Amino acid sequence: MWYSSVKSYLDYITLIFIMQIKECDFFMRAANGMGTVFKLSGNRRKPWALLGPKYFSEEEKKYKRDFIACFKTQKEAETYKLAMFTNNLEMLENTGVKIAKKKEKGITFEELYRLWIKSKEDVKPGTKSNYETNFKRSKKLYGLEIAKINGIMLQNIFYSLDLTNSTLRLLRSFWSNIWDFAILNDMATKNYAKFLKLPVQEKGNKTGDRERPISKEELQALWDNLYNYDVDKYRIIDMVLILCYTGLRISELLKVNRKNIYLKDFYFEVEVSKSKAGIRKVPIADKILELFKNRYFSKDKYLWQRLDGIEYDYDSFDNHFRILFRDMGLSYHSLHDTRHTFASLLSDTVADKDAIIKMIGHSSYKTTSDVYVHKNLKKLKEAVDEI
Question: How far, in whole angstroms, is CA 371 from its chain's centroid?
Fold first, then answer.
């Protein structure tokens, strides 16, 4: 008898439902979670559609149903719905209903990063910030499936990034951590990031074989192209000029906030430096006063902000600095050359060597009293205005 093949209550319910499909065209309301069958409007070859069960989408913040397939008859749609609900697609083998297997997309780099970063909740804020920065540098990988990224593809993407080698080393290490996590969780089989090669970069002459200060002609070229965004695509010429006329290290400048700037008194404070002598008050020369004002009164969230709204860090500014000088056809210079430029400009016009040492922030300046500094700000201002 037919009932001898019934092995469970679920099989019994399935069999009864199939018998109903074969014997009549009337269908009772489906149980919750089974999905919905309905007829589409118009004259169609397959007018009956099947939608999956309703669920709440966290991304879209609303309830939705996924489209499954279309069928010629209501019986086919209802049969397929039952097969899906009971997880028993074998019951379709002797029917005219074709099994439409939905191709599932593998986990993408972006999705994998979201999982990985959750496991890093105990890291320091600075470390987490570095992770976020490197993730933003990985935009070309966002939508790619991890399982489909091979070594050649990853190397080509790596080469295409317009970053310095020092930044690429950090990015390679970041990617390697992501791939290790994927392997640990059976989402990948090989860590291709570990084998990435750095591009061969054209280097400048050795420090001893080239002029460190930026020449007066090159400085004039920077002034001539100030706010010319066809040339200055990262909009950093003002920052380069500020470095050249203050003698600040880039790490010091990036730590200067609006609260540290006293425009009425023509100076700003350096509160973060690599040495005690670097903590100082620096006069704002008349030549660069407008540059400070434009930054100070801008609507940007950060004083030293990139075009994408992110606050500048050393690596990204160093990269943009080198690209700017390359695009302008200027001589090769490192960021530290801006300090040499400032010292050179001062030494050409200012006889007071103590003033030079103080403004550059070197430890050989003996007097560090705040009172002494305050009394000499006017003198230091006069010195930078002589440039």
Answer: 44
